[in-house]
Amino acid sequence: MRLRTVDAFAARPYTGNPAAVVLMDEDGLPDDSRLQAVAAELNLSETAYAHPVPGDPEADWALRWFTPTTEVDMCGHATLATAHVLAEDGLLGEGERVRFRTRSGVLSATREPDGTLTLDFPTARPAPVPVPDGVPQALGADAVAAWDTGTLGMLVLELADEQTLRELTPESAAVAALPTPVVVVTAAAAPSSHAAPGEPGHDFVSRVFAPSQGLPEDPVTGSAHTALAPLWSRRLGRETLTGLQASRRTGYVRTTLRGDRTLLNGQAITVLDAKLRTRL
């Protein structure tokens, strides 16, 4: 069984968010316990499994995502990684779009002329909520505002500035005790922010913590940007922005708000092409 590890939302190898991708034949997937066992063995933030669905008029492939401990409803970086693998295999040409049947409905990815990939995801409209009790203890910093993201299942917390966000040292057990399993912290880009050579500038920053899902910190979270895009587009007055997820690996997500859809654009790089020696 062929397995590839892809750095998604990455301008260069060993940055962005690594995802494992396994392409299956049209017979479908093995039972869930095997899928989960392989994801746990690989111990990446997500492992994506995809197989073609020739009888589905709305989708080309079925796609599922597993963390080391659980299946998730939506994952941006592993979807980008899967589209990248399809392009590598000659199954997604320049300017072509692939449609994925997922637990969050049909999601699509387009291969752009410049080699990047653009995901088309539903927009998550953040709704203001009070900052939950326990946030300062969990993060080691105060939040100035909080938003609920509805079915996306993430709590978005705005911090005072980029420096505060970068210097966070959260307490995983306290983060896991907050009312939502995934905590997204965000702030406006510092006025003095400058891009590293060969990398884009950015308009806002974020970090994502999900210890209850086996991810103390997620390196780059595409799905979180479906909530960050409307938040910062409204604030900054522009439909297209660049977000920097300021994890240790770092990664850039270019967002374009299109009403109830959000486009997420980024690069991907295959860093490992291996064979799974045991049966999936």
Describe the 3D structure.
Helix content is 18%, strand content 38%. It is an alpha+beta fold and 280 residues long. The chain folds into two domains: 2-122 and 266-275, Diaminopimelate Epimerase, Chain A, domain 1, CATH 3.10.310; 127-259, Diaminopimelate Epimerase, Chain A, domain 1 (Roll), CATH 3.10.310. The protein is globular. It has an 18-stranded mixed sheet that branches. The longest helix has 13 residues, at 76-88. It is built from six helices and 18 strands. The protein starts with a strand and ends in a 5-residue tail after the last strand.
Low-confidence stretches: none
Reported for the largest beta sheet, the result is:
18 strands, mixed
Helix residue percentage: 10-25%
According to CATH, the homologous superfamily of the largest domain is Diaminopimelate Epimerase, Chain A, domain 1
Overall 3D shape: globular
String of helices and strands = EEHEEEHEEEEHEEHHEEEHEEEE
Structural class: alpha+beta
User: Rg from C-alpha positions?
Assistant: 18 Å
**Tally of DSSP helical segments:** 6
Number of domains: 2
